[in-house]
Amino acid sequence: MSSTAESVPAAGHERLWSVDDHLADILAAVHPLDPIELQLPDAQGCVLVEDVTVPVALPPFDNSSMDGYAVRTADVAGATDEFPAVLTVIGDVAAGSGALPEVGPGQAARIMTGAPLPPGAEAVVPVEWTDGGGGGAAATSMRPAGVGGEGASGEVRVFRSAEARAHVRSRGSDVRAGDLALEAGTVLGPSQIGLLAAIGRGSVRVRPRPRVVVLSTGSELIQPGEELGEGQIYDSNSFALTAAARDAGAIAYRVGAVTDDADTLRATIEDQLIRADMVVTTGGVSVGAYDVVKEALSSVGDEDEPGGGVDFRKLAMQPGKPQGFGSIGPEHTPLLALPGNPVSSYVSFELFVRPAIRALMGRKDVHRPVVRATLAAGETLSSPKGRRQFLRGTYDAEEGTITPVGGAGSHLIAALAHADALIVIPEESVSVEPGTEVDVVLIG
Ligand SMILES: Nc1nc2c(c(=O)[nH]1)N[C@H]1C(S)=C(S)[C@@H](COP(=O)(O)OP(=O)(O)OC[C@H]3O[C@@H](n4cnc5c(N)ncnc54)[C@H](O)[C@@H]3O)O[C@H]1N2
Ligand code: MOO
C-alpha cells in the first residue's frame, strides 16, 4: 500500500505517517463487498442495493381500527345514551375474514381491529359506544365469540353517531402500490425489515456483512479460564476485537492466540482466508526479536501475488504507533496488523478497522461521531510532541464535558472498560489545560 499524501516530518530518524494518511490509504484499498440476495432476518444491518417499490398497497384493504360494529352512518345519526340506535347484528367480521356479510339498512356487523370493512358499512363504532349487545349500559369490551357465536347476532344499541370513515383505515393510507418503499443505500434496521416483510418481500439484495477473522499473536498468551503460568497473560485482544468487529457490523471469527512463530502464523492465516473478507491480527508489529507478524507478513505475496503484501509503518499517534496494512492471499484479502498492547489494539481498531469494516459493508457512515467537549480533568494533561494522542474518557452529553479515565498507558485495560469516548489531543499540543475544548470520539 502506498500513499501519495505527505508523511509527517520525521521525529528523530523515524518516518512517521499521519493518522489521516494511514486511514485514507486503508479506505482507498477497501471496496464494498459484492451484493447478494439475503433472507430478511439475515439482512439486518446490511445496506440495501436495490430500490424497493411497493407491490401492494398498505393496508391492502379498508379495515377497522377498533373492535366494534360496522354500521351505516344514517342508521346511527343522532344516536344518544337516551335514544340509542338499535341495529340488528348480522354476524362477525374477524381479521382474516374472507367472505364478508353485506350490511344493509338497520343492520350492523360486529367487527374486530384489522378486519375488512364489510360492504354496505361506512363507519365503525367502537364497542365502548354501544351496549355490546348486552342490553345494558355502555360496554367495556366485547363478549368473546363463544360457542354458538354469542354476540354475533341479536341486537346492539349504539349510543353515539359516527361520521363516514370513522375508525376506518383506508386502503393505501400507509403506502400505495408503486410507491418507493426503501431506496438503495438504506441500512436495514428493525423497522425497515418490518416494512419489507409488510409488503411481502421475503428476501432483498444487500451487501453482506463482512467476515472478519481476528487472531492474536504472542507465546505468552493463554485462554481465559486456564491457569496462569509463569510469565503468561490472558489473551484479551482477540476477545475485545472480535466483539468490536461484531459491533461494527461484521460476522466475526475469533482465532485463538498464535505462538510467536512465523511459519505457524503464516499457515494459520492461510487456513483462515477461506472464510475471511478481512483479517485482523494483534501483536508482533514492533521492533522486538519475536515480532512475528512483521516477520511473517513483510515478505508475503511480493513475488506470488501481484498487488499483495503488507506494509509496516510507524504512525504519528499514541497509542498505536506501529501498524501494518496490506492484502494477502489470492483474493487480496485486506489485512490489518495492529499493535499488541491492549489499548493500542483497541484504539487502532476504532480508528482503522471499524471504518474499513463499514466500507466493506458499503456504509456511508464509516466513522464514529466526533463532538467537541470541555476537558474536565483535575490537572494539566501532557501529550507527546508530534503525535496525535487518544486518551480514554467518559463523556457527559448534558454538561458537554469529557473526563479522562486512567492515564495514557497502553496497557490500561480496566480504564478502557470504563470509558465511552476517546479524547483527541492534536499532534501540535504537548499539554492541555482543564477547561480546554477538545475533540472527542464517541465509542460507547
Ligand atoms: N524498542 C521499541 N519497543 C517498542 C516500541 C518501539 O518503537 N521500540 N513500540 C512500542 C509500542 S508503541 C507498542 S504499541 C508495542 C507494540 O508491540 P507489538 O505489536 O509487537 O506487541 P507485542 O510485543 O506482541 O505485545 C505488546 C504488549 O501487549 C501484550 N499483548 C499482546 N497481545 C495481547 C493479547 N492478545 N491480549 C493481551 N495482551 C496482549 C503483550 O503481552 C505485551 O505486553 O511495542 C512497544 N515496544
Ligand atoms: O503506540 Mo504504542 O501503541 O504506544 O502503545
Mean pLDDT: 92
Under CATH at level 1, the class of the largest domain stands as Alpha Beta
In CATH terms, the superfamily of the largest domain is MoaB/Mog-like domain
Q: Nearest-angstrom radius of gyration? A: 32 Å
Report the oligomer: single chain
Protein name: Molybdopterin molybdotransferase MoeA
Task: Supply the key terms.
disordered N terminus, five-stranded mixed β-sheet, 444 residues, Molybdenum Cofactor Biosythetic Enzyme, Chain A, six-stranded mixed β-sheet, Molybdopterin biosynthesis moea protein, domain 2, binds ligand LQZAQKY5, Molybdopterin biosynthesis moeA protein, domain 3, 30% strand, alpha+beta, binds molybdate ion, elongated
How would you characterize this protein structure?
With 444 residues, the protein is of the alpha+beta class. The chain has four domains: 8-33 and 209-360, Molybdenum Cofactor Biosythetic Enzyme, Chain A, CATH 3.40.980.10; 37-57 and 176-207, Molybdopterin biosynthesis moea protein, domain 2; 61-170, Molybdopterin biosynthesis moeA protein, domain 3; 370-442, MoeA, C-terminal, domain IV (Beta-clip, Beta Barrel). Helix content is 17%, strand content 30%. It contains eight helices and 30 strands. Strands 18-15-19-23-22-20 form a six-stranded mixed beta sheet, with helices on both faces. It has a five-stranded mixed beta sheet with strand order 10-7-9-8-11. It has a five-stranded mixed β-barrel with strand order 24-27-26-28-30. Helix 4 runs parallel beside helix 7. It starts with 7 loop residues before the first strand and ends with a strand. Mean pLDDT is 92; it is low at 1-6. Bound molecules: ligand LQZAQKY5 and molybdate ion. Molybdate ion is lined by residues 318-321, 339, 341, 344, 410. This is Molybdopterin molybdotransferase MoeA. It comes from Streptomyces scopuliridis.
